[in-house]
């Protein structure tokens, strides 16, 4: 810290807040710690009574918080995101495209464990929209050693800590099973729910086939949609363990690889995830998707729409945070479900 005359302070960095008091009008911070003094600031500072200022004295090997924040931003930045203005030594990353946010949690923790610096992000694997905040970066003190920031770059590695996987356009086929719907004994209420959720994304529904519980017919319906160009198949009904619920076996008989039949999520335990020829997702949705506000489907669909391959380990990890509290007023995704 160094004391200099205010008239000579242009370009220097303030080491403390400066308060301005105008009787009956204003009392508050006029210039915050870390502010870089400009030519226009000089008359204001003098009017406050500041003939002298305490400024940060630039030393070899030391970085101001704004410089350090830029380094942390560069550690994070990737395609489809841009920086905010630097404010009080903080830079935020803003989404420029809708998609799924991916965070390398392990490397993020390593950087944050270095001390005197921080990167805070949104949750991994959650959908974001253009304009959303993705992360914020800053150092804790006003200045920091260049050596420490070099260490942060080393720990972070060559790849950005976060990325956005943009949503893709997808053609979708819906296969609904159940004799009660097929014979018209009850009205299909599954289809409208699925279409409503798909409408949140860039999708084209090729159609909906309503079948009884014949597994061969279900298998053929799935294959027919794939032959029509479907890039996502959603099967509803027949997903329990009752003997006449044959949808899981019908999906398997297409030749699709079953990732998991079952997920540690409530609502949504009887969910099935598979991939046909390792590329086309075939989802088996449990009955809860029809009536519950949010389910396993809401956690999986964004990743499917971004072509983010979901593994058994990914599904297993949903057990931590996989209990929906069925709140009277649903605030998803701004809640703990799926996090």
From TrEMBL:
List the source organism. Answer: Clostridium ragsdalei P11
- Keyword list, A-Z: Magnesium, Metal-binding, Molybdenum, Molybdenum cofactor biosynthesis, Transferase
The protein's name is: Molybdopterin molybdenumtransferase
* Chloroplast found in the keyword field: no
Transferase keyword on record: yes
Q: Which SUPFAM superfamilies match?
A: Molybdenum cofactor biosynthesis proteins
Catalytic activities: adenylyl-molybdopterin + molybdate = Mo-molybdopterin + AMP + H(+)
Cofactor field: Mg(2+)
* EC class (word): transferase
Summarize the protein's role.
Catalyzes the insertion of molybdate into adenylated molybdopterin with the concomitant release of AMP.
InterPro entries noted in UniProt: MoaB/Mog-like_dom_sf, MoaB/Mog_dom, MoeA-like
């Amino acid at each position: 810290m160094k004391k200099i005359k205010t008239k000579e302070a242009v370009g220097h960095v303030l080491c403390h807040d400066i308060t301005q008091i105008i009787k009956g009008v204003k009392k508050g911070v006029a210039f915050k710690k870390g502010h870089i003094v400009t030519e226009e600031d000089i008359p204001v500072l003098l009017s406050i009574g500041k003939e002298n200022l305490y400024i940060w004295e630039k030393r070899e090997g030391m970085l101001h918080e704004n410089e350090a924040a830029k380094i942390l931003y560069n550690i994070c930045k990737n395609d489809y995101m841009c920086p905010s203005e630097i404010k009080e030594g903080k830079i935020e990353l803003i989404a420029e495209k809708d998609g799924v946010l991916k965070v390398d949690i392990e490397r993020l923790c390593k950087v944050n464990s270095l001390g005197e610096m921080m990167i805070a992000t949104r949750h991994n694997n959650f959908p974001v929209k253009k304009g959303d905040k993705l992360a914020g970066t800053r150092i804790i003190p006003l200045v920091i050693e260049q050596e420490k920031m070099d260490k942060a770059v080393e720990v972070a590695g060559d790849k950005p800590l976060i990325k956005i996987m943009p949503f893709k356009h997808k053609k979708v086929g819906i296969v609904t099973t159940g004799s009660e719907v097929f014979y018209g004994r009850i009205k299909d209420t599954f289809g409208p729910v699925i279409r409503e959720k798909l409408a949140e994304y860039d999708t084209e529904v090729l159609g909906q086939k309503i079948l009884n519980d014949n597994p061969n017919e279900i298998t053929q319906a799935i294959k027919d949609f794939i032959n029509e160009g479907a890039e996502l198949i959603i099967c509803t009904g027949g997903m329990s363990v009752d003997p006449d619920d044959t949808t899981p076996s019908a999906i398997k008989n297409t030749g699709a690889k079953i990732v998991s039949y079952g997920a540690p999520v409530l609502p949504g335990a009887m969910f099935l995830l598979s991939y046909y020829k390792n590329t086309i997702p075939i989802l088996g949705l449990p009955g809860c998707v029809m009536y519950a506000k949010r389910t396993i489907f809401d956690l999986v669909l964004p990743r499917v729409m971004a072509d983010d391959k979901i593994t058994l380990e990914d599904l297993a990890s949903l057990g931590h945070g996989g209990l929906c509290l069925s709140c009277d007023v649903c605030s998803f995704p701004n809640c703990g479900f799926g996090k």
